[in-house]
Write a structure and sequence with these properties.
Elements (H helix, E strand, L loop, with lengths): L1 H18 L3 H33 L3 H6 L12 H8 L3 H32 L3 H15 L6 H10 L7 H9 L2 H11 L4 H9 L4 H12 L1 H17 L2 H6 L16 E2 L2 E2 L1 H21 L1 H9 L6
Antiparallel strand pairs: 1-2
Length: 297
């Protein structure tokens, strides 16, 4: 009996040693892991280093020196030129207006649409959900001719209302995010409220909307980044002076006879500062809201 037990233990130990990952493989895996992380950091940081170095060079030095060469003299006048002539302050103001109204409209229409589509199981809602899925799969560029004609016919071209309406009306992804969060909210809460005499609008305002706060925060983060970085919509629908946003304010320094890249780089640094402040001040909240609701309880 004892011999059989010892043989079983030896067999188990041999199988354990056979299944154990060799130490050399672990070392190679760790080296590859950290090599990928270092490469990813370099891909993010090197362009930023080039922008910072280029923003403090003169025009002649920028053209004659390398991308990673240190400047002989620091030209901080580039920041003043970018801020004043580039009208960066006006661009930040217009961007803030577009962002506030677009985010508010997206949250209001997105949550209402998701509430109807997810809670009311009818043929109409299934059809609407299928149309949303079809529209989300279509590339935006393929519909720009029709969208431009609609915007022009509504006399919204070259106004701040054009990008606001487009950002609100074409945000199908936010609706699907709200639908995903609504699936984790029990329908019994709605039924209990209705039995107590609440109407469906009251259920939406008092129960659904407060419980969608994590989803709303997630959509706001995504919306903020997309609007702040969007160049195409602002450049196409607001070409006039005075309607610049952050992404188009510095476009005037690019011309057919040369581009003042040192001023553009200085303007980029100025435009990065507001987003950097927002991100650093709300870092924990942003990370927690982006992953909240990803795991079903």
């Amino acid at each position: 009996m004892e011999n059989n037990i010892s043989e079983i233990k030896k067999t188990d130990l041999s199988e354990y040693k056979f299944r154990e990952t060799p130490k050399a493989v672990k070392i190679i895996f760790n080296i590859m892991k950290y090599a990928v992380l270092v490469a990813a950091c370099l891909m993010v940081l090197l362009p930023l280093v080039v922008v910072i170095l280029g923003s403090v060079k003169s025009h002649t030095e920028f053209l004659s020196s390398g991308a990673f060469d240190l400047p002989s003299t620091f030209e901080f006048e580039n920041f003043k030129t970018a801020f004043i002539q580039g009208n960066v302050l006006k661009g930040l103001f217009n961007t803030a207006i577009i962002m506030v109204f677009s985010c508010f409209g997206t949250i209001l229409t997105g949550t209402m649409t998701a509430f109807v589509v997810q809670r009311f199981k009818m043929l109409f809602t299934k059809l609407v959900k299928g149309i949303f899925l079809l529209v989300a799969l279509l590339p935006n560029i393929s519909m720009q001719v029709t969208v431009f004609q609609v915007v022009h016919s509504l006399h919204l071209y070259d106004t701040l209302a054009a990008p606001i309406i487009l950002y609100i009306g074409t945000d199908i992804i936010s609706i699907y995010i709200f639908i995903q969060f609504l699936e984790n909210i029990s329908v019994s809460l709605d039924e209990s409220a209705i039995l107590d005499g609440c109407s469906y609008p009251r259920v939406y305002w008092s129960i659904i909307l407060p419980m969608l706060k994590p989803a709303i925060a997630t959509v706001l983060v995504i919306k903020f980044v997309s609007i702040y970085n969007d160049f195409y919509t602002a450049n196409l629908y607001m070409p006039s002076d005075g309607l610049e946003v952050v992404s188009t304010a510095l476009y005037k320094f690019i011309g057919p006879y040369g581009s003042k890249w040192e001023i553009i780089f200085a303007g980029i640094i100025i435009c990065i500062i507001p987003t950097l402040i927002v991100f650093l001040s709300m870092q924990k909240s942003i990370y927690s809201n982006l992953v909240s609701g990803s795991v079903k309880q």
